[in-house]
């Protein structure tokens, strides 16, 4: 733990059972340090939460990882759980509840105040991974006929209950969103200015049923700290703030990296996950990849006669399949990341294919040339490949061009195909693409060898 003094002071005060001084001491610490302390001594999390003021307890709880949040709840009395759940912002409370089993959710919802229960049930009613799940109903909305003075008075009265007062929203009598303003726009004009004279009707909003990934892209493009969320009629339902979007973006990035590595996404930190559960997450893809690699042996068996006639061909099998797998893995990783950043969409498939077609030919030509030169040089010193070294070099070189080209096309197109059919592009992981290209690479290699060497070595 970085803040050793905090841990040491906590241990001294808890050993002395001096909870009054501990409360004063903890309330003076940064929330991030409190969260780190809970992570360091999870068995004392109940003491820490009970000692803190409820607002600071909720602030610390909301930035903990879900497994640790679950542990904290188990250590608290029902009354304290109710107090904590009611204090949490609606979006953070919803994010926590949606991870729990349905029975646990029912019990916790019973502890909420009527209004908080209504809000929570409303948010939980939106599809999983939708913007509605992460929006908060705590925002400042004003009317277009108000003066700036009335707006500022309203903010002073109600701003403390809002998630943010950086952005103020203008709605009509039906609750429909008309415009939004950064608060500085109100601070820099005369108090007598009427709101509708400042409106330009240019604003960006999210729909409650939009995918959370879409929200990430909009935030990135618009450079906003908060965005409004509306329904089909344009009624303002809530807002999504940048801290929630950054949290979702981090989760999406982590999940994609894990899938690209050839495993299911982990729903707990690596060191906290039970070993058998971790194995279960990994073994599925390993079995699929293993069965796929068995096709490599089948392909080798199909060309058994050719290998028997020209054993030298077998020497270059690892070179061929690894080059194809590497090029495919490169391409899939680049395309998956570009799709995650919104740089590429399904409609860009032809542009991607055209670029990868040229890239594959050029990359294959570079590797093929190196392979050809290496075979000739090696043969000139050690006479390893005999009188047909040039023919073998051409076979390997041309095969590398074909295999690398196929690898780049497969790796770049597979994520787009999966996205087209509604699957997660990250599942087209590097190991999966490499396995696919291994099998097809052998077919390309031995087909080229048969064409070049027929009647000579074959």
Write up this protein.
The chain has 20 helices and six strands. With 458 residues, it is mainly alpha-helical. The strands form two sheets. A three-stranded mixed β-sheet has the order 1-2-3. It has a three-stranded mixed β-sheet with strand order 4-5-6. Strand 4 (206-207), helix 13 (212-222) and strand 5 form a beta-alpha-beta unit. Helix 8 (90-97) packs across helix 10 (114-124) and helix 17 (317-340) runs parallel beside helix 19 (389-420). The model has no long low-confidence stretch (mean pLDDT 86).
Note the total helix count: 20
Which descriptor suits the 3D outline?
A: elongated
Percent helix, as a range, is 55-70%
Strand percent estimate: 5-15%
Uncertain runs are none
SSE string, helices as H and strands as E: HHHHHHHHHHEHEEHEHEEHHHHHHH
- Helix vs. strand class: mainly alpha
Give the averaged pLDDT, no decimals.
86
Q: What is the CA-based Rg, rounded?
A: 30 Å
Features:
458 residues, mainly alpha, three-stranded mixed beta sheet, elongated
Give me the secondary-structure topology.
Layout: H1 4-16, H2 19-27, H3 31-40, H4 45-51, H5 54-61, H6 66-75, H7 78-87, H8 90-97, H9 102-110, H10 114-124, E1 141-143, H11 148-158, E2 167-171, E3 177-182, H12 183-187, E4 206-207, H13 212-222, E5 226-230, E6 236-241, H14 242-260, H15 275-302, H16 304-309, H17 317-340, H18 349-382, H19 389-420, H20 430-453
Parallel strand pairs: 1-2, 4-5
Antiparallel strand pairs: 2-3, 5-6
């Amino acid at each position: 733990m970085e803040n050793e003094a905090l841990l040491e002071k906590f241990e001294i005060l808890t050993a002395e059972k001096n909870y009054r001084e501990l409360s004063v001491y903890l309330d003076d610490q940064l929330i991030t340090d409190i969260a780190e302390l809970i992570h360091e001594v999870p068995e004392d999390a109940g003491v820490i939460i009970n000692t803190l003021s409820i607002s600071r307890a909720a602030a610390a709880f909301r930035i903990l990882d879900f497994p640790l949040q679950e542990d904290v709840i188990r250590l608290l009395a029902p009354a304290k759980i109710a107090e904590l759940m009611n204090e949490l912002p609606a979006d953070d409370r919803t994010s926590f509840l949606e991870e729990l089993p349905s029975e646990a959710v029912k019990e916790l919802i019973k502890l909420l105040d009527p209004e908080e229960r209504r809000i929570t049930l409303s948010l939980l009613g939106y599809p999983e991974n939708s913007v509605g799940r992460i929006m908060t109903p705590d925002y400042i909305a004003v009317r277009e006929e108000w003066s700036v003075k009335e707006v500022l008075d309203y903010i002073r009265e109600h701003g403390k209950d809002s998630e943010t007062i950086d952005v103020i929203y203008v709605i009509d009598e039906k609750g429909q969103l008309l415009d939004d303003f950064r608060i500085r726009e109100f601070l820099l004009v005369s108090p007598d200015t009427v709101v509708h004279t400042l409106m330009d009707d240019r604003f960006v909003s999210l729909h409650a049923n939009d995918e959370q990934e879409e929200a990430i892209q909009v935030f990135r493009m618009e450079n906003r700290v908060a965005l409004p969320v509306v329904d089909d009629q344009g009624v303002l339902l809530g807002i999504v703030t940048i801290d929630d979007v950054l949290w979702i973006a981090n989760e999406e990035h982590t999940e994609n990296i894990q899938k690209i590595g050839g495993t299911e996404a982990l729903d707990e930190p690596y060191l906290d996950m039970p070993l058998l559960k971790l194995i279960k997450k990994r073994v599925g893809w390993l079995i699929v990849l293993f069965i796929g690699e068995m096709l490599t042996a089948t392909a080798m068996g199909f060309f058994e006669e050719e290998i028997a006639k020209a054993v030298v061909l077998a020497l270059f099998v690892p070179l061929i399949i690894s080059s194809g797998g590497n090029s495919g893995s490169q391409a899939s990783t680049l395309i998956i990341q570009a799709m995650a950043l919104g740089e590429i969409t399904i409609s860009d498939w032809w542009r991607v294919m055209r670029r990868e077609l040229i890239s594959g030919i050029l990359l294959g030509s570079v590797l093929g040339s190196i392979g050809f030169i290496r075979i000739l040089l090696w043969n000139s010193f050690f006479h390893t490949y005999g009188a047909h070294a040039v023919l073998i070099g051409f076979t390997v070189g041309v095969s590398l061009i074909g295999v690398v080209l196929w690898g780049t096309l497969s790796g770049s197109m597979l994520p787009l195909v999966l996205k087209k059919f509604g699957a997660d592009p990250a599942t087209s992981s590097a190991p999966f693409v490499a396995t696919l290209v291994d099998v097809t690479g052998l077919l390309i290699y031995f087909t080229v060898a048969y064409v070049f060497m027929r009647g000579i070595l074959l």
